[in-house]
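The data are passed on as follows:
___
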Amino acid sequence: MPAVRFEKRFLLLAISVLEMLLFSGIIYGWTSLVYILKQEGYFSDHCETTSANTTQQNTQVIKLVNCQVITNTSTQDAPCYPACLEQDETLTQVFAISVVASQVASLFAGIALDYFGLRFIRTCFSVMMATAALLLGFSTREYPYVYLVYPGMILVGMCANITLLANVTVGNLFGSRRSTVITIITGSFGSSPVTFLVQKMLYVHFGVPFQHMCFALACLSVPSLLATFTLFPKRKFLPNSHQEKRKDSQETEKLQKENKSGAGVESGTARPNEETFVQVVTSRLYLLHLAYMSVMNLNVIILVGTANIWFNMVTGNNNGHGPTMTSRRRAAVPVFIITSLTSSLVFFFATLSVWDTSSVESSTGLLMTSAPDMLLTFVLHVVSRAFIYGGNTAFIANSFPAKHLGRLIGMSYLVAGLLGLLQYPLIGWIKAAGSPFYVYIFVLVLSVVTFGHPIYISYHCRDVSGKDGRHPSQSSLGNPVNGHLKHEACDSKETCV
């Protein structure tokens, strides 16, 4: 693959960031979308079956609130629909299924990237996103069209990590700035919920119909499909050094065919001690990273999932050629430390807020029942989330062979998603205890334990670099250290930039 021009590299980066903002993690902007769905009366027929007097009274109150909100917008004659707990539970079920679909699809997307190439998964996410937007656009509150929300949101969830994998290899075009670019692309994943937020603002303040916005989103996926066949390669972008090695490997194979007598010797040197996929996923470095990523992902889910409970409890209302591999791995240490620190602070503040509000205010000066001080916690949460997903992708891309990139990233999100199912017993624990206090303590302890990950990376890199007192490029590449093969020199088949 020829070198990519400077202008084209930045055009590809701009396309990748825009696609990430529009299509990747928009499922996590569910709180904005669910507001629109409730205003449109989706699943409001579930409220008509309530028979308890108290439930009927509560429904009437919520109905009046919804009428007032709609009347204050430009849609004066908009109908009012009842809202109730049964409706909330159904909509929450839609979100939960979509998130699980997102995590499960990530591994298959990673396998598809490694085996079928970039063009294949880019086509998949463009078609899936257009289909998802059309399904949402054609859905209404009437039966059976209301159930189009299920396949529509499931496809939106599946597109999340597929879009990430479809764009992350663009970072390989930027040489020594590769990690920074990968983090920018992955960080856009955390900002993508703004898509549904913008839709909510257009719906509330300008009266733009929900269906029209969905059809517009479907149309926006067409340019992505065009870019797939005009700007992006069939396989995937590789680091420059890796491209050169692939060319050398092809020349070596040609020589082997011409001289069969030397095939045995040359085939033994074509790929010196490159780690296999099984060696990578069973190494202590990758397994520890999986555990770290799973805990951090669970932290994000728990905070988002218990946000309403937390608000209600503390406020009483509903407001709310470069570097070697060792140096690249070591560069992830401060990222992981910041992530563990911010996550620990988030749940430290949350724990204090539900424990003893007066003591917290007297000792820290923070009034956790006030909006500005509660905002501090969510600012830390947003910062933490950006570091979690950006750091995960950049670390895997810099630490392991490029040919396994898709599967390794996909597996990290799959395992994190499956362990994220612990949210259900933890939320059940909150309901049984009547307070999230003990769950917040549990998650806080897990956050503190994650400091072990950057500590182990520092130890691992120091052990590899100083094993025999020689420069990493002079040390043996084949000897395993702590269950992980050493790949320090850029003349090995490793991803070096």
The mean pLDDT is 74. The first strand starts at residue 480 and ends at 481. Residues 103 and 418 are 7 Å apart (CA to CA). Residues 85-116 form the longest helix (32 residues).
